[in-house]
Amino acid sequence: MNLIIRDMTTADIECVCKLLEDVITETYKINNLKNDDLYEFIAEKKHGIKEFNGNDKCKGIYKCAFCNGILVGIGGIYPLCKDILLNIDDQYKNELEIGSLYIHVDYQKKGIAKELMAKLVNEIVMMNKEYFFLDCGYKSSQLYWERILGAPYKRLESYFDANEHYLIWKIETKEAKRIFKTENDE
């Protein structure tokens, strides 16, 4: 598997939007989520990507994962989302979030998410951030992140629906470097 992870460019936006639509739709199915907000959620994620301006890091940094030339994953760093801001201590409100980490279903469980996280953590390291946040509302992904990152900083029961919980991790950058074995290891 020839995996290349690089910064997203404006030329990638259309393919990234298609990837988001496919992966989010499949993730809703896998997690037995109601579709009542599916299209709204996809539209929200696409809007964030379409607002991308490679020259404005304040709006976000996105990395794309390509396997044999095919876009198979995306992940980003950006200011904390509303749901995280509402549920964390004020002292962390200026930290960043790693999010919108989506891997095409045919390429999951191949280490791509971990490689993509290593690149994103490397960016956080270069920004001299002590912490960053990651959130997740998908049961299937929560299991993955709990295995990799341990217990979440916040676990909000029935946040989206009766059995749909919302997990937030506050991750120390030094620990993330160890977990994801970034390029900037000292």
Give your account of this protein's structure.
The chain has 186 residues and is α+β, with helices and mostly antiparallel strands. It has one domain (3-180): 3-Layer(aba) Sandwich (Aminopeptidase), CATH 3.40.630. It is 37% helix and 28% strand. The protein is built from six helices and seven strands. It has helices at 13-30, 38-50, 82-85, 112-126, 139-149, 173-180, and strands at residues 3-7, 61-67, 70-79, 96-103, 131-136, 154-161, 164-172. The protein has a seven-stranded mixed sheet. The radius of gyration is 16 Å and the shape is globular. The two termini are 28 Å apart. The mean pLDDT is 90.
Given the helix and strand composition, which structural class is it? alpha+beta
At the fourth CATH level, what is the homologous superfamily? Gcn5-related N-acetyltransferase (GNAT)
What does the radius of gyration come to?
A: 16 Å
SSE pattern: EHHEEHEHEHEEH
Name the helicity range: 25-40%
* Biggest sheet character: 7 strands, mixed
